[in-house]
Amino acid sequence: MAGKYPINPHLGKKLDYFLFADHPLWVPVKATFNGVPYTGSLIKYGHPLHSLGIPKAIREQTGKDPGDTIEVVVWKDEEVRTVEVPVQFEKLMNKEGLLPVFKQLSYTHRKEYCRWITDAKKEETRLRRLGKAIEMLKKGVSTPG
Q: What is the 3-state secondary structure (H, E, C) of the chain?
């Protein structure tokens, strides 16, 4: 799917959205916005059409603002999406019997847990987040934050 679309600002400031034709459920896609590559998903937000989120950083790379027209090329992402789980986090989940719970989470939620842990600048913060992540998984929390 390719075309030129106006940037339609959504309620939040972090993402802008484009509407596309209806597809069944959540659809993993790759895209380019004015040639800038992106990997994400077509997702529904309470209406019959799917939306494709554009991170603010990509919108800034294109030099476009809400209301501007941008060229979009989208195709289904057939690659298996994997998350590199920090070794210590995997060991803790194994010890607590939470690895199956973690593996049942969506790719995005698994990625967020791992990013949240590895983005810690200090070792003490990373260790604290490891403990919090285990507690959140025990409580059924799908994503940190």
A: CEEEEECEECCCCCEEEEEECCCCCCEEEEEEECCEEEEEEEEECCCCCEEEEEEHHHHHHHCCCCCCEEEEEEEECCCCCCCCCCHHHHHHHHHHCCHHHHHHCCHHHHHHHHHHHHCCCCHHHHHHHHHHHHHHHHCCCCCCC
